[in-house]
Design goal:
- By secondary structure, the protein is an alpha/beta fold.
- The chain is built from 14 helices and 15 strands.
- The protein has 2 domains: 127 residues, Aspartate Aminotransferase, domain 1 (Alpha-Beta Complex), CATH 3.90.1150; 234 residues, Aspartate Aminotransferase, domain 2 (3-Layer(aba) Sandwich), CATH 3.40.640.10.
- The strands form 3 sheets. A 7-stranded mixed β-sheet has the order 4-10-9-8-7-5-6, sandwiched between helices. A 4-stranded mixed β-sheet has the order 1-2-3-13. The protein has a 4-stranded antiparallel β-sheet with strand order 11-12-15-14.
- It is globular and about 60 Å long.
- The site of ligand TLP has 14 residues, from helix 3.
């Protein structure tokens, strides 16, 4: 796909073979910096961040720490790096981390926690709303015994990507943290889309993180910055995380150039996430009106955000061979990019700053026509 997609006009994807512009709903990671954001980057004051001397990086770290009510922040290259640095700072070789079987850290981070840090993942079933049953967590925590790994860390995710982008509220997060803390464990929150949760629930981000020991927030998803995430925690946690980041090769130098986009995003792009949620809700409604499609992220069972997941059932429209992979290709021919989750016969569409309400109507029309293709 990258071979035939090229970026033109700064904000449109263009397929050279098909001479077509695309509505890109594959992820909110595909967003491109606006002219104003690029201007902020060009004007950034920079210094050597490994010496701690980049004022823009320092500002970004302080802003994020304040937003999540924590003492300090650390700018990292990606969400994956932020989660890995967090796990390796909290836990050592042979220690165990408890996490959901649908957690991004478990599914999509190349096994980094085990591969790089020797941290043993112990997975528990995620509920449909992204939580993990508290009794299940309690049963999974190991007693002190020479045979067992030490249960050191609980990892949670909010919003929960594979659970339909569900926003998890503070009551659950507080209760899970209380349980983990009572057993001497730390809690890390993968808050790649934390501000989507905060906006959807109508509460400050700090209310979601008040019981957490660390949180990672992505700048390069709904917030629209091109690169980076921030890991936050106590001052002493971040001091230790700084060393882990350096060991992983993540000590960047004049990183203020990219941190400036993050500062801009925190100032301008949080409130507008509600537009993405409204677009997602309209998309979900449209999907549910199409025979053979059933939206699972907006089914009333959880708090939805900007991720729209839906099941494809070709058999109900008389075409058993019509699955998520086939639908994805048919959509592409119609100028809409969306990811198939393959064998589970689910698809995901993600709304973001590059998607307008007109794009949503066009995508619904494309879905309808793709489902009716014979
Ligand atoms: N998620 C990506 C893919 O990796 C699946 C996406 O398109 O949604 N935590 C969560 C909850 C995420 O969804 C992601 C990215 C990450 C961490 C990792 O962030 P990056 O891509 O910056 O390493």
């Amino acid at each position: 796909m990258p071979a035939i997609l090229q970026n033109v006009n700064n904000n449109q994807w263009f397929d050279k073979e098909m001479q077509m512009e695309f509505i890109d709903l594959r992820s909110d990671t595909v967003t491109l910096p606006t002219d104003e954001m690029r201007q902020a980057m060009a004007n950034a004051t920079v210094g050597d961040d490994v010496y701690g001397e980049d004022p823009t990086v320092n500002r970004l770290q302080e802003m994020m720490a304040e937003l999540v009510g924590m003492e300090a922040g650390l700018f990292v290259a990606s969400g994956t790096m932020g989660n890995v640095v967090a796990v390796l700072t909290h836990a050592g070789r042979g220690d165990e981390m408890l996490l959901g079987d649908l957690a991004h850290t478990f599914l999509y981070e190349g096994g980094a926690a085990a591969g790089l840090g020797g941290v043993h993942p112990h997975i528990l079933p995620n509920e449909d709303d992204g939580t993990i049953d508290l009794d299940g967590i309690e049963r999974a925590i190991r007693p002190e015994n020479v045979h067992f790994p030490t249960s050191r860390l609980l990892c949670l995710e909010d919003t929960h990507n594979r659970c339909g982008g569900a926003a998890i509220g503070p009551e659950y997060l507080d209760a899970a943290a209380r349980l983990a803390h009572s057993h001497g464990m730390a809690v890390h929150l993968d808050g790649a889309r934390l501000f989507n949760a905060s906006v959807a629930l109508g509460i400050p981000a700090a209310q979601l993180t008040r019981s957490m020991d660390s949180v990672m927030i992505c700048l390069s998803k709904g917030l629209g910055a091109p690169v980076g995430s921030v890991l936050c925690g106590t001052r002493s946690f971040i001091d230790r995380a700084l060393r882990v980041r350096k060991v992983l090769g993540g000590g960047m130098r004049q990183a203020g150039i990219i941190a400036a986009a993050g500062v801009y995003a925190l100032e301008k792009n949080i409130d507008r996430l509600k537009e993405d949620h409204a677009n997602a809700a309209r998309l979900a409604e449209g999907i549910d009106s199409i025979p053979g499609l059933r939206c699972t992220s907006h089914d009333g069972s959880k708090v939805p955000t900007n991720l729209v997941y839906f099941a494809v059932d070709g058999a109900t429209v008389g075409d058993p061979s019509l699955n998520a992979d086939v639908l994805s290709l048919r959509l592409r021919k119609r100028g809409v990019l969306a990811n198939s989750l393959g064998s589970s016969n689910q698809m995901r569409m993600v709304t973001h700053i590059g998607i307008s309400s007109a794009d949503i109507e066009q995508s619904i029309a494309a879905l309808r026509s793709a489902m009716e293709e014979t």
